[in-house]
Amino acid sequence: MENIKKNTKIILQAFIFFIASIALFNCGGGNQQQTPNTSSSTAKSEDTVYVKIQTLELKSIVKTLNFFAKLSGIQESTKYSMVADRIKRVRVKIGDYVKEGQVVIDFPSDNPALQLSQAEEALKNSEKIYNRMKELAKSGQTALQNLDNTETQYLVSKRNYESLKQMIHVEAPISGIVISLPVKEGDDVKVNAALFTVGQINKMKVKIWASETEINYIKIGMIANIKFGDKIYTGKVSQVDLKMDEKTHAFGIEVVIPNPRGELKSGVTVDVAINVAKKNNVIVIPRNIIQIEGNKKFVFIEENGRAAKKYIETGLESEIEVEVTSGLKVSDKLIVEGYSFAKDGSPVVIK
For 49-61+280-350, which CATH class? Predict the structure, then answer.
């Protein structure tokens, strides 16, 4: 019996020792885990950021407004068919120079619907009567009223004949280059079909539309750059509408571009960039590096191996750059790469 009690006591002591050991291990382990966490936090706050910098200097900035527009000659005019008939003759080809009033296309003169021959005969008769009345009026053998009446009849006949003639022998409306000729001899055309277009293309123009905000920047005479293909052509703003267009709800702007070599083509869509403002000798930074904190703007510069947070105020803006009016100075080392990982006071290494 004594042996049983003795064994029980030994087992109980061993169990108590085991429990105490576990408790002591847990307390010691907990303390050991807290120290590395503190060290890790400290190391993290001092993490080095690798950056690229740009030393600030004074430069220029240009504010540009960009549009898309379609080119046309400084003056263009299209002639449309006034008769439904087959084209008898085309006297020109695309690229030819024509003078105002020069016949470009002929239709048959025997179109029964026009009655050109009857109109020509009526003109000849009225002209004879008119000339006769002039002679009689000179000798006092007829009243002036009769002369006036015959003159009116003659002018009406002449106008009618000329109108019919121009319908058959289609003339160039302006002097210039034939830039479009969608028909050929033998084509049957309907009334109001486009026959040809004449353009004056030594100068080109574009019509762009500016918003209520943009119109406040644009003035006559401003430089506009037109991109066509891989080349840039320079023009000027020639007209600024003072009234908003009711359909587009925008203001019309016309830009004229010299085209002495004829490289610019009518009808193509081009990029138009108007330089509306420029400042020289100012601090300019890339707009993509500016960060926002509430209603404040800030950037980072490098000072003595650490990142320094600088709040800034801005002025003129272009598509990719911004003028800084306060907060930075010439020779500051602006962080332009790695800034998103930086904090005020972070150690930095310049790449």
Answer: mainly beta
